Each structure stands twice: as structure tokens, then as C-alpha cells.
Amino acid sequence: MLKEAIKGRINIIENVNDWKEAIVLAAKPLVEDGSIENSYIDAMIANVNKFGTYIIIAPKVAMPHSRPEDGVNKNCISMLKINEGIVFEGEEEKVFIFFVLGAVNNDSHIETLMELMELIEDEERIEKIIEVKTVQEIMYLI
């Protein structure tokens, strides 16, 4: 389910200026295919400004998200890998992977989220994803 949901929505870039740019770029495929509105990106950024770095859910991994009513049109997920990584203010370790999750309600995305958490908890696979250079290699690891 995760593999199918994320297919065509993975990007790899060398670096970003800050975490805000990372969120915008991570969400870009979802805006482009109509899964989310730009207002959802604004809400994700506002959440980090308000609540801090809670989106860093595991070493080297962030999962920006917001409420369904902030602009989610359909359940969706995308991924951005930043080769150089980025450090959030107040944090010590770099984040290399951003998963943007959008859900139309509070429970319709549970299966995909469970698969995603299984992946994120597998530190060895996350390290491999950080090391690989192509989307095809990432898809294989997912």
C-alpha cells in the first residue's frame, strides 16, 4: 500500500536553504496532482513555527503534516530526500528524509501510516535510503 501510494511522488535534491523550503519541495508532487492545496503547505509550516520540531519523528526523518481541513483533497504521501541533509534550529542531527502525509479524515490513512512507521523504525533501511542515489533504488527499499 505504501509503495503504491508513494510511487511517482519521490524527489531527490542536493540541498535546501531551510526546513520551510524542504516542506514546500516535499509537498510539491501532492500539490501538482491535486492531492493537497497550497493552504496545506502553509498549515504545515505554521505548525512547525507554533509547535517546534515535533515533525522530526525519528533520527534523520521528518513527517510534516496538518489537519484534513487545512487543504487535503485525497489521502496521499510524498517523499523528499535531501542528500546533504538539513539541521533544524535547536536540533543537533541532520534530517535527510521528509515524508509529507495528507489524510482526508483522522482514520482513513492508518494502514499507509502503519507501513510508513515500519519503514521509519528500520534504521538500516533508512540509512540505505539516505545513501542511494536514484528514485528506483528508494522504491526498491520501500
Radius of gyration: 14 Å
The number of helices is 6
CATH class: Alpha Beta
- What would the CATH topology be? Mannitol-specific EII, Chain A
The CATH architecture would be 3-Layer(aba) Sandwich
* Uncertain spans: none
Describe the structure.
This protein is an alpha/beta fold and 142 residues long. The protein has one domain (2-141): 3-Layer(aba) Sandwich (Mannitol-specific EII, Chain A). Helices cover 43% and strands 20% of the residues. It has six helices and five strands. The protein has a five-stranded mixed β-sheet, with helices on both faces. Helix 2 packs antiparallel against helix 3. The longest helix has 14 residues, at 19-32. The radius of gyration is 14 Å and the shape is globular.
What attributes does this structure have?
five-stranded mixed sheet, Mannitol-specific EII, Chain A, single chain, 6 helices, 142 residues, alpha/beta
Topology:
Layout: H1 2-6, E1 10-13, H2 19-32, H3 38-51, E2 56-58, E3 61-62, E4 76-86, E5 95-102, H4 110-121, H5 123-131, H6 135-141
Parallel strand pairs: 1-4, 3-5
Antiparallel strand pairs: 2-3, 4-5
Short description, anyone?
The chain has 6 helices and 5 strands. The chain is of the alpha/beta class.
